[in-house]
Amino acid sequence: MTHAPVVDVLAGKYAVGETVTVKGWVRTRRDSKAGLSFIALHDGSCFDPVQVIALNTLPNYADIQRLTAGCSLVVTATVKESEGQGQALELDATEVSIVGWVENPDTYPMAAKRHSIEYLREHAHLRPRTNVIGAVTRVRNCLSQAIHRFFHERGYFWVSTPIITASDTEGAGELFRVSTLDMMNIPTTEQGDVDYSQDFFGREAYLTVSGQLNGETYACAMSKIYTFGPTFRAENSNTSRHLAEFWMIEPEVAFADLGDIAQLAEDMLKYVCKAVLEERADDMAFFAQRINKEAISRLEKLISSDFVRMDYTDAIEILENCGKDFEFPVSWGIDLSSEHERYLAEEHVGAPIIMQNYPKDIKAFYMRLNDDNKTVAAMDVLAPGIGEIIGGSQREERLDVFDDRLEEMGLSKEDYGWYRDLRRYGTVPHSGFGLGFERLVAYVTGMQNVRDVIPFPRTPGNASY
Ligand code: 4AD
């Protein structure tokens, strides 16, 4: 017997009259006085459940009448045209085999009613059974497939950069240490410092905050690469945009400048948003109805309009003169906070902005110094509703300028030996960016908090499951 995913049944892949087997979980059950039960059965393969009709002539009809939300079933049935409104096809059950009951249906945490998003977060192991998290999961998958496709079609190689690393790429000190030292008996040097030479790697090691530096080494040989992997930041930010563990996509391109990489970011975002609209119309209709009524229209707008390029210096002028009372005061040199980014993207422009050429003092050591000696060739993509989703730059490829920068920042050349080698042996201008995957999924779905677009969010104080 064909195991038929619900998505295929509803799409009409099986002829009316054909016998199929569907496997899934009960979302709802209602009984008719005429002696039949209607079971909405979902299997995660699409937004809608399929309606299964079970007649009282089935030998286990008494059991069927006790089915509640969450019970698992294997149903053998005949495909038929639906008599009711809504879906065109439904299933006439010839056999309903009950695989797993739900104990104490009254206390089943995912009983069929609307739950708050915070409640669902507390039941992260059961929440994939809900409409909303099911839809997020399918859109997340669609986005990641589209990202791989986008790069593959353009000749990029996917490079796996290490998760355990010795370098703090962003220099922000938000590192999780990886150590096998016995916390009760930490070895120390003669000076009283922790003796990391006795640790597993013979030195200090951390979870990576970004695959960029390793990515650069491959770009400077393979020309066009990207990474797609988990990254970790021990920043104590309890916001709707920050996670301690998040996924990042980092393309890195040799012989590319800031303009090239900004265009790549725009093309990629348009490509993946188009893929979601085409491939996940069912889920996007749900998000537009329940989460954000502009969920679809703003993606359509993003695809059809040019992103606005804006210089940091111009943005500061706009913010200073807009007459708004910001919590964080505005002046040249500040790091834009989310209220500034949101004002610019939502109110001032109303579309994604590619903000460029930031003051060097607020940016990382590897960014290329502009001719003004004050700014670096950096760019952030700011999306309405969420703020920064991409951060990138042209990298400093000139060894002498790079060394000056290291010195200025109090960093040692020895620590960057292998990175400096790229500048010593056949250096090339190169550029790249990092896309925060959860911020992208939140933007596309309209979900308010990145904790609801990753299966098991890691945030300060939360590492259950
Ligand atoms: O701007 P960031 O720190 O850039 C880098 O890490 C560069 N090395 C990227 C590169 O040029 N290859 O981070 C890039 C993106 C941000 O724009 C944001 O979307 C996301 O990563 N991000 C986070 N997402 C969730 N939680 C956090 N704590 C995040 N920190 C950064």
Automatic annotation (TrEMBL):
What biological process terms from GO does the record include? asparaginyl-tRNA aminoacylation
A cellular-component GO term for this protein: cytoplasm
Stated EC number for the protein is 6.1.1.22
Q: Chief location of this protein?
A: cytoplasm
Any one GO MF annotation of this record: asparagine-tRNA ligase activity
Q: Where is the Aminoacyl-transfer RNA synthetases class-II family profile domain?
A: 138-455
What are the protein's UniProt keywords? Aminoacyl-tRNA synthetase, ATP-binding, Cytoplasm, Ligase, Nucleotide-binding, Protein biosynthesis
Annotated catalysed reactions = tRNA(Asn) + L-asparagine + ATP = L-asparaginyl-tRNA(Asn) + AMP + diphosphate + H(+)
Report quaternary structure and partners.
Homodimer.
Q: Which NCBIfam families match?
A: asnS, PRK03932.1
Q: Which family does it belong to?
A: Belongs to the class-II aminoacyl-tRNA synthetase family.
Q: Which PANTHER family match?
A: ASPARAGINE--TRNA LIGASE, MITOCHONDRIAL-RELATED, ASPARTYL/LYSYL-TRNA SYNTHETASE
The name this protein goes by in its record: Asparagine--tRNA ligase
